[in-house]
Design a protein that fits this description.
mainly alpha; 86 residues; 0% strand; 5 helices
């Protein structure tokens, strides 16, 4: 993964919400980060910190505004391809 990320991955994020928004809107757990000791605190934060979870909800509203309803998957794929080419 380290080699792949260092030499081939040209985007800063891997999750669709973060790619579409161009920011770290949701926490990404990649490879060895997907462990209980990492995920559990994030889940607790989501459940217990209303400002944090409300911010994520607001970010998802922005995503809905960007990709809309009909054909959203095609538009999201187009955004991802554009990001990968830049």
């Amino acid at each position: 993964y380290w080699l792949f990320r260092k030499f081939f991955l040209k985007v800063h994020y891997v999750s669709l919400p973060n790619l579409v928004l161009g920011k770290n809107a949701v926490r990404e757990f990649i490879m060895d980060e997907m462990r209980y000791d990492k995920v559990s605190p994030e889940l607790q934060r989501l459940l217990n910190n209303m400002e944090y979870s409300n911010q994520i909800a607001r970010d998802y509203d922005i995503i809905r505004g960007k990709i809309g309803n009909p054909g959203a998957a095609d538009r999201a794929a187009g955004i991802m391809v554009g990001l990968l080419k830049s």
